[in-house]
Amino acid sequence: MKVLLTIIAVLISYATFAQTKGEVIVVKDPLIDSLIAKRIELNKAKPTVNNPASSTVVSSMGYRVQIYYGSDRREVFAQQAKFKAEYPKLNTYITYKEPNYFLRVGDYRTRLEAQKFLTELKPTYPTLFIFREKINPPILE
Known about the structure:
This protein is an alpha+beta fold and 141 residues long. It has a domain at 60-135: Alpha-Beta Plaits (2-Layer Sandwich). It has 4 helices and 4 strands; from the N terminus they run ααβαββαβ. It has a 4-stranded antiparallel beta sheet, with helices on one face. The N and C termini lie far apart (93 Å).
């Protein structure tokens, strides 16, 4: 009798732990599909001069020249304005890493280009360094 009850208990417990195949329902926002379609469209679009919105920003590794660093916020903006007055076509980038501000200029693809610009700036700015970081590609016309 004990053996029969044990076998019945095992069969019942086996039936309760058996898994059946189920159905998975994915619930997502319909905007996700529109965002994916827009991303595909942006990647296919060729950048043009007349339509800058169609151009995608692709950054790559390059070099920038650091012309100033310090903890005074007003001074870094004054140095940026001074540099922009001398070189209006070059981009300037201010970053803050506590406790200092860093002013870096230019988007150079090679270290040689950055070095040439550094030697040009040497008389005006006393402390210059070249840093490798992500740069913005030049706008082609």
